[in-house]
């Protein structure tokens, strides 16, 4: 059977009957192809100086810095610019520090600056980067914690500090985008927490984000290929503590991050990912009664840091009374006893979150904007972890000292206190319940935003 007939039959089978083929010449493959011009977002860049995009520092505070077109070659980040002297004024340890390697004797030593961070001209880049630069498109988050010491194996330290800080800095430019990739300088094991919340978060909140770690960085180093990260945030705990004003004062890595100005709804893309996941599971994040706010009590009575037993019983009684009266919709939950999906579901629906200082309060990230967080601590002490988180995501925060609140203006005068990890933290049940009711009633009209 002639080729033209076979082609006609094949065409009609796949796509339906089309115009009659009048010339077999239109189906003869050419002996050569014309290569189309590469699109502007092409993955490969000529190393000619005129073709290399300039590095820009878009926004940042110590330890959290957002760049466009930051280069990576060998194991070194390169700023390529026509303002070399100006960019060199930014001390590199403001961006990335704490990098160590083993010397010939196996001792841990600081990596020299020239092996970590360099600022070079376009002409120097043209000479150095051969034969082609590979572009890594999209947003990259680079976590600079090494395998040891490493704080990323904890839900709060990874998600509520480094991830949230990086995303807020990126949003300062009005950009709303989940990362194309996250890079961990440490091993995969060093980012895993004992409850597997970090893994759960990475897969649910960012299902299409590539997770890269030390082994991938080693491959890039050994490849001999220069790369340029189209957009990248470097999150470095030690840089923040070394140069940050509030991190040094409070020993909290995100101390300066709330000062970064962002749009009011900057965190919506990340929260929406979690929200879509819990909705798909069948979770109903609506109030049972639209006029009755939801209170989530993160109960820690099965842990070391907890309320005095009698106070815990009194608080449970008072909160349940409000629930029975129809004034609040109460969820009294020990987080370790429910599934991860249920934990995130409860957080998404809550208007008020109450609890003793602990990992469960990290879930305030998933509450609707404008919610309230009430944290119970030992009298005379204050830890800033969860008030900083509340400030970043737009919640109202209160510290409770037994039978009174501890005002913000006094936080700077105290540390967390010697009995911070006590198993007998005091809390006046009646006072706490009244405060919960007040915060709940203030949020009757605080509705769940649309997707």
From TrEMBL:
Keyword presence, Nucleotidyltransferase: no
Gene Ontology molecular-function annotations: protein O-acetylglucosaminyltransferase activity
Glycosyltransferase 61 catalytic domain location: 269-374
Top-level taxon of origin: Eukaryota
Main location: membrane
Membrane topology, from the record: Single-pass membrane protein
InterPro entries: Glyco_transf_61_cat, Glycosyltransferase_61
GO biological process, one term: protein O-linked glycosylation via mannose
GO cellular component: a single term: endoplasmic reticulum
Location(s) in or outside the cell: Membrane
PANTHER family in alphabetical order: GLYCOSYLTRANSFERASE (PTHR20961), PROTEIN O-LINKED-MANNOSE BETA-1,4-N-ACETYLGLUCOSAMINYLTRANSFERASE 2 (PTHR20961:SF38)
Protein name (database record): Glycosyltransferase 61 catalytic domain-containing protein
Organism: Kockovaella imperatae
Taxonomic lineage: Eukaryota, Fungi, Dikarya, Basidiomycota, Agaricomycotina
């Amino acid at each position: 059977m002639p080729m033209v007939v076979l082609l006609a039959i094949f065409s009609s089978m796949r796509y339906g009957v089309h115009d009659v083929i009048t010339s077999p010449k239109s189906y003869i493959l050419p002996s050569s192809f014309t290569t189309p011009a590469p699109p502007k977002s092409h993955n490969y860049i000529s190393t000619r100086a005129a073709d290399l995009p300039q590095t820009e520092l878009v926004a940042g505070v110590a330890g959290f810095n957002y760049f466009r077109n930051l280069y990576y070659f060998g194991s070194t980040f390169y700023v390529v610019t026509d303002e070399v002297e100006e960019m060199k004024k930014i001390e590199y340890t403001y961006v990335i520090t704490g990098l160590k390697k083993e010397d010939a004797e196996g001792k841990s030593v600081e990596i020299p600056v020239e092996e970590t961070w360099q600022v070079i001209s376009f002409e120097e880049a043209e000479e150095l980067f051969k034969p082609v630069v590979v572009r890594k498109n999209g947003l990259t988050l680079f976590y600079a914690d090494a395998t040891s010491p490493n704080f990323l194996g904890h839900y709060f330290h990874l998600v509520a500090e480094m991830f949230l800080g990086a995303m807020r800095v990126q949003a300062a430019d009005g950009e709303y985008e989940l990362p194309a990739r996250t890079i961990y300088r440490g091993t995969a094991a060093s980012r895993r927490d004992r409850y597997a919340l970090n893994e759960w978060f990475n897969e649910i909140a960012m299902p299409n984000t590539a997770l890269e770690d030390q082994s991938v960085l080693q491959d890039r180093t050994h490849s001999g290929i220069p790369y340029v990260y189209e957009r990248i945030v470097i999150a470095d705990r030690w840089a923040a503590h070394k140069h940050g004003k509030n991190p040094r004062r409070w020993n909290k890595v995100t101390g300066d991050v709330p000062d970064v100005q962002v749009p009011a709804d900057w965190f919506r893309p990340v929260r929406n990912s979690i929200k879509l996941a819990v909705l798909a599971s069948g979770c109903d994040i609506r109030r049972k009664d639209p006029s009755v706010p939801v209170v989530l009590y993160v109960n820690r009575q099965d842990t070391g840091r907890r309320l005095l037993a009698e106070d815990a019983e009194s608080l449970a009684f008072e909160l349940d009374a409000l629930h029975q009266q129809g004034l609040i919709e109460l969820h009294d939950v020990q987080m370790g006893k429910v599934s991860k999906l249920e934990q995130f579901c409860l957080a998404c629906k809550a208007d008020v979150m109450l609890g003793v200082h602990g990992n469960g309060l990290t879930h305030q990230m998933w509450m609707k904007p404008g919610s309230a967080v009430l944290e119970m601590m030992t009298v005379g002490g204050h830890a800033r972890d969860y008030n900083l988180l509340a400030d970043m995501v737009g919640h109202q925060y209160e510290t409770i000292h037994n039978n009174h609140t501890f005002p913000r203006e006094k936080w700077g005068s105290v540390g967390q206190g010697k009995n911070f990890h006590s198993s007998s933290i005091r809390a006046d049940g009646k006072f706490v319940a009244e405060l919960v009711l007040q915060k709940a009633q203030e949020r009757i009209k605080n509705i769940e935003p649309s997707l």
